[in-house]
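TA notes, week 10

Several of you asked for a full example with nothing omitted. So below is the full record: structure tokens for the whole chain, then the designed sequence directly under it. When grading your own attempts, check the secondary structure regions first.
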């Protein structure tokens, strides 16, 4: 980390209009974490933020999950290591790192397993014990006090928060099969809570018996109390006492099974955060529970901001419309602070594959990032005002997973006794996951029905209900009171068990006239045991099917927002967020369909006489036409794909300047023929060379080029140190000698570089895209036909992520693809392949246009004249830059009309519309319409559309069998991703077999898959 570069990058952040930075150590850090050089870089960041008055958010870990502080916590004391319980037959050999607890029961022995050092994910150490108070005190000392001691004067002013990431009670990578979270503090805490010693019942975590479900509930309640007390509450209190917010998110928040699998009942922990948060991964909006869980606790505890870490693993091709779509769903579900994942300090080495996209200066679209950021920022600010209007409370069924959680026990001595599972994602006994999943599916169905009915609700976590839930009367009506919130209706979803404290509260609420309905499987157990009291009470609670819930609740609580005569498919993805602002009301409505547009009649119930639309793009507000009656307002609104409306309702009377947002049929429309549109490339073209032949020392050269990423993997596995030579082939066909060609290499000083045997070196040219990407001018050195670029590294050193002390040695010498950039075209042989991941359809995304090219078919040639349409087949398959489209505006009589430019579709990140050298607006999302303001049309006027691409076609992944992905992690770039050999040492040998034709990775294609760039459908000028 170089302080001067840190300052330069914060300059870029300030120019972009961001409000702050988050200092986050990620994969690939070679500066010693929390060492002097690290803090030199942090010093630079804080001082530069002071210059621009940017907020600083600290991050409490090296990578994630939080708790090990780069390894210092588990290294400090073995008692700080993660611990689990496992059950093994007494006839098995005793596994390593275990000690027995209690006596065997029916030939089954319970062991405590303590995680050993040597885990690559934790820098050669291991996951810590988050339930151990001393361990987490050590974590606070390392990860929190280390910053405070240096920057205490800035706490509560410049430094506003510290982010904790994915903590959990059990990390399910490299641990024994069927592990259950455990800590040494559990036995005493359990006996204090329940007045009996749990040792003789621990086997009930692995077997079934009459009282197993009650015991499991007791056990997992203690696990969660210890985690909440010793992790969340302890760190939250430290942050409060030091005048900053604890923020961040927990691991795998979304599903009932996932939460229990990683050992955390998440909702109660949010109350210890100043700014509670969630994670939202990939290019999807299927996950809805996480945001609603977090929003519910934030509402109940009066936390005004809810942060979402979003866009991670969505891929480099993520467009502004994709970003708007994801953010809109999150904001509709309660998020009002956006934390983008991520902005890379550098894309050198493995870092470029770190859960893309990269949202920073390296992206071609970075100069116009404000076009999407400012509308999102305005929406977030608006949705942080007032109080959420929750119409009802849904009891959360998470504790049912406690009762059902029977972990695997191994009875028959097998190799499983001795092998750690690389990823134990289903640690439960046969049939358990299906049972929990059935409850989860019912729960999700209820949530979806509520959202598609435009009804608002919170969840009630039973632990929180026990702490702060009570019955009150508001305007003579009974309500459930939870902190800041009041609920007049309670819904009991499908669940197996309910807590006595919850039943006590609901009985009182019902007895006093409160409204309760239930749907799905009624709870059968009270704190894990059958109860006649529960059964009798349930008889008095009306049961309805999930599909009938909207009809039933409408008779109890009239909706605040109602679609009138709406198509059910239109309504299904129309989400609403409602906030009360004293006598006013703020309503956010968004169409989350990506392939469906419609107009809708919306009834806005309440004592309101006027409605204004708040334009998040311009910051202006406009009064809308509405039909007013004693029950509220009726408005007509258009909903293009991803289109939203932010409405402010007021009891004040309407004025006479109302407008309708519905666009009428155009008075004039003129379309452009493709030949009327001039297309220009504005930046250097590029080709990615990601295949190379290699030679280890004096061995023979590999018989054929292989993916460089696979060569790196092999060398690390065999722990190769020594001389390494790489030869990258490149083909030339009819390229003028004077055409600019630059060779771009990361860390060129590590190599002796030859182009067709001619030695070259880096001579100080400005970096290309990333400050570690150094260009070397090789203009004139390439000849017709096949060329070779050779890199000789005389001191290659393998990387091993398990190395503890020498941080740089974890990564060793990183060999990567190289790039040629300049003034040329790249031609290849298109194939007929159109790979398509099934998730595009499953996630409701529009189909993505891709073009595949045969591997080893690319060659450089002279630039060609570009035509309107997809430019990946016009010499720009790897291009990461801008296109300029331009044409004359037709000479028409405006006759008082407004003039717009429209397009059919957008296969780029963003389009900027320019008229008279001024930006008129941006194509970001549907309806892809930009008004051309202040123009007097004559034959000399032209418009331009600047199309901004992404890093996708330059960086890939290019070779995945499914083509372009919706879920893109680091391993998606590797040949053996998704196969039995993923992360296996066998790939070192398999690579050699591949060169000999004896093996081909099943999910890898030598062909290159690119996403289209430049196809807008039809461009037209329209007068309305």
């Amino acid at each position: 980390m170089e302080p001067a570069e840190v300052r330069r990058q914060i300059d870029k952040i300030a120019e972009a209009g961001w409000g702050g930075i988050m200092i986050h150590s990620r994969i690939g850090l070679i500066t010693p974490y929390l060492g002097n050089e690290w803090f030199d870089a942090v010093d630079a960041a804080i001082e530069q933020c002071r210059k621009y008055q940017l907020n600083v958010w600290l991050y409490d870990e090296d990578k994630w999950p939080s708790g090990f502080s780069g390894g210092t916590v588990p290294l400090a004391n073995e008692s700080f290591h993660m611990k689990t319980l496992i059950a093994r037959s007494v006839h098995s050999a005793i596994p390593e790192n275990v000690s027995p607890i209690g006596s065997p029961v029916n030939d089954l022995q319970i062991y405590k397993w303590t995680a050993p050092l040597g885990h690559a994910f934790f820098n050669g150490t291991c996951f810590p014990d988050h339930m151990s108070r001393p361990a987490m005190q050590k974590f606070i000392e390392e990860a929190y006090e280390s910053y405070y001691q240096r920057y205490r004067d800035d706490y509560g002013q410049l430094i506003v928060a510290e982010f904790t990431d994915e903590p959990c009670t059990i990390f399910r990578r490299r641990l024994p099969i069927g592990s259950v979270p455990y800590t040494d503090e559990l036995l005493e805490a359990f006996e204090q809570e329940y007045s009996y010693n749990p040792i003789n019942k621990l086997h009930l975590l692995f077997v079934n018996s009459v009282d197993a479900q009650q015991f499991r509930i007791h056990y997992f309640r203690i696990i969660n109390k210890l985690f909440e007390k010793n992790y969340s509450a302890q760190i939250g209190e430290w942050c409060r006492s030091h005048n900053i917010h604890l923020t961040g998110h927990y691991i795998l928040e979304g599903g009932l099974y996932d939460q229990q699998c990683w050992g955390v009942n998440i909702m109660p922990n949010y109350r210890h955060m100043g700014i509670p948060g969630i994670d939202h991964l990939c290019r999807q909006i299927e996950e809805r529970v996480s945001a609603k869980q977090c929003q519910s606790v934030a509402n109940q505890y009066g936390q005004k901001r809810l942060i979402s870490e979003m866009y991670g693993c969505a891929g480099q091709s993520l467009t502004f419309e994709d970003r708007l779509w994801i953010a809109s769903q999150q904001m509709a579900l309660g998020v009002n602070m956006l934390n983008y994942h991520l902005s890379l300090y550098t894309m050198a080495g493995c870092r470029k594959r770190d859960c893309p996209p990269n949202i920073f200066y390296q992206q071609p679209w970075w100069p116009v990032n404000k076009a999407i950021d400012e509308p999102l920022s305005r929406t977030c600010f608006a949705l942080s005002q007032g109080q959420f209007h929750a119409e009802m409370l849904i009891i959360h069924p998470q504790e049912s997973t406690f009762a059902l959680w029977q972990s695997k026990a191994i009875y028959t001595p097998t190799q499983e006794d001795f092998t750690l599972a690389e990823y134990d994602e289903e640690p439960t006994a046969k049939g358990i996951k299906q049972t929990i999943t059935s409850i989860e599916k019912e729960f999700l169905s209820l949530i979806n029905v509520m959202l598609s009915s435009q009804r608002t609700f919170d969840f009630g976590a039973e632990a929180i209900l026990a702490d702060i839930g009570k019955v009150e009367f508001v305007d003579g009506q009974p309500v459930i009171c939870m902190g800041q919130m009041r609920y007049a209706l309670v819904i009991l979803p499908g669940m197996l068990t309910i807590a006595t404290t919850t039943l006590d509260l609901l009985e009182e609420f019902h007895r006093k006239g409160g409204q309760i309905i239930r749907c799905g499987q009624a709870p059968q157990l009270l704190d894990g045991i059958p109860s006649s009291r529960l059964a009798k009470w349930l008889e008095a609670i009306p049961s309805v099917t999930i599909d009938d819930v909207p009809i039933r609740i409408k008779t109890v609580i009239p909706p605040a927002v109602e679609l009138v005569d709406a198509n059910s498919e239109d309504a299904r993805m129309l989400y609403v967020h409602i906030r009360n602002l004293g006598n006013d009301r703020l309503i956010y409505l968004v169409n989350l369909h990506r392939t469906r547009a419609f107009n809708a009649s919306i009834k806005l119930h309440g004592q309101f006489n006027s409605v204004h639309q708040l334009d998040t793009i311009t910051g202006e507000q406009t009064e809308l036409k509405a039909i007013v009656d004693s029950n509220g307002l009726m408005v007509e609104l258009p909903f293009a794909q991803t289109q939203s409306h932010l409405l402010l309702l007021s009891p004040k009377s309407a004025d006479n300047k109302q407008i309708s947002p519905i666009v009428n049929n155009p008075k004039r429309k003129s379309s452009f023929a493709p030949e009327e549109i001039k297309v220009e490339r504005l930046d250097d073209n590029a080709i990615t060379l990601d295949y190379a032949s290699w030679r280890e020392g004096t061995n023979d050269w590999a018989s054929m080029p292989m993916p460089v990423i696979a060569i790196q993997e092999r060398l690390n596995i065999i722990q190769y140190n020594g001389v390494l030579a790489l030869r990258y082939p490149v083909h030339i066909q009819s390229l003028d000698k004077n055409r600019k060609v630059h060779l771009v290499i990361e860390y060129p000083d590590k190599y002796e570089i030859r182009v067709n045997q001619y030695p070259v070196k880096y001579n100080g040219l400005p970096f290309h895209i990333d400050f570690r990407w150094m260009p070397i001018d090789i203009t004139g050195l390439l000849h017709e036909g096949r060329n070779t670029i050779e890199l000789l590294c005389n001191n290659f050193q393998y990387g091993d992520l398990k190395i503890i002390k020498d941080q740089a040695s974890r990564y060793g010498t990183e060999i990567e693809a190289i790039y040629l950039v300049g003034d040329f075209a790249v031609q290849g042989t298109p194939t007929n392949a159109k790979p398509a991941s099934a998730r595009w359809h499953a996630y409701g995304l529009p189909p993505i246009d891709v073009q595949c090219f045969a591997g080893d078919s690319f060659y450089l040639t002279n630039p060609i004249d570009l035509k309107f349409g997809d430019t990946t087949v016009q010499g720009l398959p790897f291009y990461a830059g801008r296109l300029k489209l331009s044409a004359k505006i037709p000479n028409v009589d405006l006759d008082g009309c407004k003039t717009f430019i429209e397009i059919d579709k957008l296969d780029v990140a963003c389009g900027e519309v320019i008229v008279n050298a001024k930006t008129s607006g941006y194509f970001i999302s549907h309806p892809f319409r930009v008004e051309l303001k202040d123009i007097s049309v004559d034959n000399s006027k032209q418009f331009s559309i600047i199309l901004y691409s992404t890093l996708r076609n330059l960086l890939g992944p290019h070779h995945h069998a499914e083509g372009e992905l919706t879920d893109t992690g680091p391993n998606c770039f590797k040949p053996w991703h998704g196969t039995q050999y993923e992360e296996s040492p066998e790939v070192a040998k398999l690579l050699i077999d591949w060169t000999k034709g004896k093996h081909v990775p099943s999910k890898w294609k030598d062909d290159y898959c690119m996403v289209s760039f430049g196809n807008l459908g039809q461009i037209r000028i329209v007068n309305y």
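The chain has a mean pLDDT of 97. Use that as a sanity check on your answer.
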